[in-house]
Amino acid sequence: MDRTERLLTASTNGRPEPATVGQPAPAAAAGQPEPAAAADQPEPAAAAGPPAPAAAADPPVAGPAAAPVPEPTSTPADRPADDPRWARPALLGLLVATGVLYLWGLGASGWGNAFYSAAAQAGSESWTAFFYGSSDAANSITVDKTPASLWLMALSVRLFGLSSWSVLVPQALLGVASVGVLYATVRRWYGPAAGLLAGAVLALTPVATLMFRFNNPDALLVFLLLAAAYATVRAVETASTRWIALAGALVGFGFLTKMLQAFLVVPVFAGVYLLAAPTGLGRRIRQLLLAGLAVLVSAGWWVAIVELVPASARPYIGGSQGNSILELTLGYNGLGRITGDEVGSVGGGGRPGGGGPFSGQTGPLRMFDTEVGGQISWLLPAALILLVAGLWLAGRSARTDRRRAGLLLWGGWLLVTGLIFSFMSGIFHAYYTVALAPAVGALVGIGVTQLGRARTGPGRWRGYAATLTLAGTLAVTAWWSWRLLGRSPDWYPWLRPLVLATGLTTAVLLALLDAPVTKGFASCRAARGDANPLIDLSRGPRWARWASAGVLALGLGAGLGGPAAYAVQTAATPHTGSIPSAGPFVAGGFGRGGFPGGRVPGGAEFPGGGFPGFPGGAGPVPGGTNAGRNGAFPGFPGGQPPGLPDGGTGQDGGTGQDGGTGQDGGTGQDGGTGQDGGTGRDGGAGRGQRGGGMGGLLDAREPSAEMTALLKADADDYTWVAATVGSNNASSYQLATGEPVMPIGGFNGSDPSPTLAQFQRYVADGRIHWFLGGGGFRANGGSSASTEISAWVAETFTATTVDGVTVYDLSSGKQG
């Protein structure tokens, strides 16, 4: 029986059907506004518990008048019987396929971002390091983020031991869970077909595939924001105080994951609740204030502890110049990202017109530019078109209309976050755009199904307008996919015309077949609770069923073909370093550190993460030298920043004029463009990995067995087996040895931790065994402590070379 029949027979239960439904009502499906009779009723003065469902104000259809009936504990959206039979198997298939995509060959990426992997290893050995998010188990300095994402990895390492799988699998599982939560959120108001399409778009977005196979904080942040969106949807349904408070708590925990980025959705979630919750305005405001308190408590408890604990009793707060988590929150990871005034950063604010060398140009088209476009923008035009179309279908709806509320929630998420990313002048990386992927997926799923319903709804011209909108959206998507694929012309060149031809052909067929298909399915114009809301393929003439199924399959293939191909390529390619990038080589992109031409074809790995790709193989500074190894920085004598020890030689003493770079004078190992100079299908590269880095600053190269054995000798006699400039340089040695390595100056080598006096005291106390040259680069202000320490070491101790790395034995400086 359909939903109308179930509603008419509800008298046997003694109570009416509650207003919170998992599928849109027939009136809503046809684009008519929902009645707001009970939704806008003011709250009772003496209400002592959660508000009743909106329909509770309506009289019961039948049943005993005197017998009180308890409120239903679940809504129809929670009941499996309301879903069509194909819904659960389809969801299971989607989740399994997502798991395969995110888990297959995951160990090939090694430590991923070694900066966070080393911190997870430290947290698995020291609860103090776990709590603060320290880079090393001896707690010299923290990472430059709040530590929630590290907690998950550190617990995994404690349980399963240190390996790339124990570090990366939690991220993949978060990806599968995110797809499931997005499905559940969209399904509640728009049905299972919309939820499945939304989940598939999220799973196949290239930057999502990248980040759910990588160990940056973004995976956990996306999951938490999706969970907060689900809680907001539940709160809007019944004006629930508990659900909106939970949404606030989840956003607050998002702050503990990636600081202020989590708050970008706060005005959107609050605005949607204030608009659409079915209760009085005063109660809505009080509930939002309570949710704000939940945000403050969830985010603030850890901040308060860090600020109250004396600095001498905790590690230095990485990324700050004053050892303050509040400074880090509001400066380097806060307003500095917007204005570009990030003291101690590398790259932010470095370009005329906004944006640093890692950022691209600011402006409304940033999400579509050479580097960012292939990460997120495949379905971005479609999402924007479908957002407008969905709001048009909602029309002059009641205040509590859920179709409109959902569109405002996901559309607000997309627009607010996307605009801030587009115009922020500070450090911005393309992978940040994974935060847009859930909103894009939701809008595509909602928009396609809403227009599909409108096609077979009442009103001839309204239905045809919906058809033309679907066809036009598909054509635009196919054209934009064609443009994006054209940025990698040597990567499966046949795919580009195939996607364009399929998309345009399907758009034309959709318009031509609409009349007979609509006629053939006139009997199912109203979306049934047990039928596909796009189109009921179980009815109508056989030819119409086959035609409709074919058009549907072609449309999905054309729309998702490009991003799916990018996603599979991303999953098949190892990624390491601090600036990963999805998809194949893009000419003129900003990969591997953000400089034009810097991305290696196919993402080949270069010794020490050097800077290939400048005109004529030049380094970033004329007169540059060898790209360096194990953390060397090209463009300076010896491949190292000014002031570091042994600044006169590079690996094998190789130097050059007019910007020559690369081991043996080439742009890669042995002068090739990839490992061993090989070439391959992905734009001409060999067996390399994708990633990004500026020598040891943003990349970490595994040390040799000789160096590892040297560091592990007598390790128990020292607090730190070694010290080196920059967290990424230190992380490679720490992961190889399993022993603490002090990262002087933190991530960028620009933090005043330790100072020269503190370092000298550590050496005198016999707490540091070795000092390792290379790594780090001070730019855009910041402390000069790392330069002072490097100079003091070079003047005081004797240098030796181990596997091309300059090392200093500090044990001779021990006093007493």
From TrEMBL:
It holds the Pfam family PMT_2. One of its GO terms (biological process) is lipopolysaccharide biosynthetic process. It comes from Micromonospora humi. GO terms for cellular component: plasma membrane. This is 4-amino-4-deoxy-L-arabinose transferase. It is found in: Cell membrane. The lineage of its organism: Bacteria, Bacillati, Actinomycetota, Actinomycetes, Micromonosporales. Residues 18-66 have a biased composition (Low complexity). It comes from the Bacteria. One of its GO terms (molecular function) is pentosyltransferase activity. Residues 1-84, 598-699 are annotated as: Disordered. Residues 708-795 form the Putative mannosyltransferase YkcA/B-like C-terminal domain. The chain crosses the membrane at residues 86-104, 159-183, 189-212, 243-276, 288-306, 376-395, 407-424, 430-451, 463-482, 494-513, 546-568. PANTHER family: MANNOSYLTRANSFERASE YKCB-RELATED, UNDECAPRENYL PHOSPHATE-ALPHA-4-AMINO-4-DEOXY-L-ARABINOSE ARABINOSYL TRANSFERASE. Keywords: Cell membrane, Glycosyltransferase, Membrane, Transferase, Transmembrane, Transmembrane helix. It is a multi-pass membrane protein.
